[in-house]
# Entry
Amino acid sequence: MELKDYQQHCLDEVRAYLGHLAKLKAKYDRDVAEDPDYAFDFPRQAWSKTKDTKTFQGAIYHSKRNGLGEPLPNFCIKVPTGGGKTLLATHSIGLINAHYRQRQTGLVLWIVPTNQIYRQTLKALRTREHPYRQVLDVNSGYRTKIVEKTERFTPADITESLVVLLLMLPSANRKNKETLKIFQDSAGFNDFFPPDDRLPDHQKLLEQFPNLDCFGEKHSLFGSQIKTSLGNTLRILQPIVIIDEGHKAYSKGSQDTICNFNPSIVVELSATPPPNSNALVSIGGQDLNREEMIKLDIHLTNKASHDWKDCLRDSIAKRDELEKQALEYRNRTGTYIRPICLIQVERTGRDQRGDLHYIHAEDAKNYLIRECGISPDAIAIKSSEKDDIEGIDLLSQNCPICYIITKQALQEGWDCSFAYVLTVLTNPSSKTAITQLVGRILRQPYARKTEVKALDECYVFCFRQRATGLLESIRKGLSGEGLGDLTGNVA
# Structure
């Protein structure tokens, strides 16, 4: 996959920082070997050298330490929704190994916040034809191994391959009792630790990694035995840590747990990094727009009717119009686009029907079928109870789905560039209705403009929203996706 200009610029800046980091880390290691009192914050110094350029003037570095008390290099790539953050992550891993760790193998701990993002990332990384996997394969010499926390890997895997372990953020949180099993003793990782009966070797390893979990007191007469847990294995392997949606990992518990894995470096990717993150690169919405990554303008229609069906009917008409444009475009260019309409309702649960004050998913579906003549095969419901799009390739020419009805299930981690129309049928007083879904219709199919005006823009239809609050919701929605500089493109 060819990199966009802003992506290449981003990786150039990462490479520059890693170059400074590698030189200062070598000096740090020499100084500490001579006298531990000579230790210094080498990541901060590397940051200072990098920010001397025009790009980084005024940047503030927030120091962190790993579980061993050592300075922990960490930086954030600020990239909006749809900006290719996973692609940037795979390239960053290659740059870290080439310019900082200076090897092709080892462990990468890839942390994601939600099940939706987890499944998408796992599928992409395990598909050898996918661009993300191809980048990892090229950088590892085609020795890549993708694993989950329930799967085992060996010291030979770490020595000979680039092992990428995917982990959900709740599973990484030490305080989450339901997922503490990654810190429990496990026979699957015995080969990373001394045999049980060789306590002196356990003591030596503890001297090197004092934060390992053990059976017994570490300074007792009989010594301690290190637990052969996945958590301890991560600590001794000192992985590269990639944190998707990094802003969600800033609770004290999450930060403590991640640092306690003794990472060699931490890379965050976020559209909205918190103030205390180290934003090395900041990509904006206009960067994506220049590269034809997103649909603009955003056309907003506020339906004043008292009947939500009028709003939905207008949305159907717009989708049908786009369908005709897409068919003409396909006949002319051979490129397939099937415009999809997202419909946000107020209720989706089976036990929530019957209240006439709220619009239910089944109400919207029945209207589409009975009153508008739309085939049931073209309609899907996505909720916590029902998932009609699970495992479906929405970009396939064989997929009939043109309408997806949801409440909140598509707020984040959902990616389909065929989504063109957003219909909001929620309560006018809802502050999150549009805010959390507007980003789902912004991606441009195939990341390039069609030169057909209607197919290069997107559309929002709302039911009885307040005009001033509506625009504010759109602005908040764009800002929440890292696209705050595009608020002038709402028509």
About this structure: The chain has two domains: 5-193+228-283, 293-489. The two ends are 33 Å apart (CA to CA). The CA atoms of residues 379 and 403 lie 5 Å apart. The chain is about 35% helix and 15% strand.
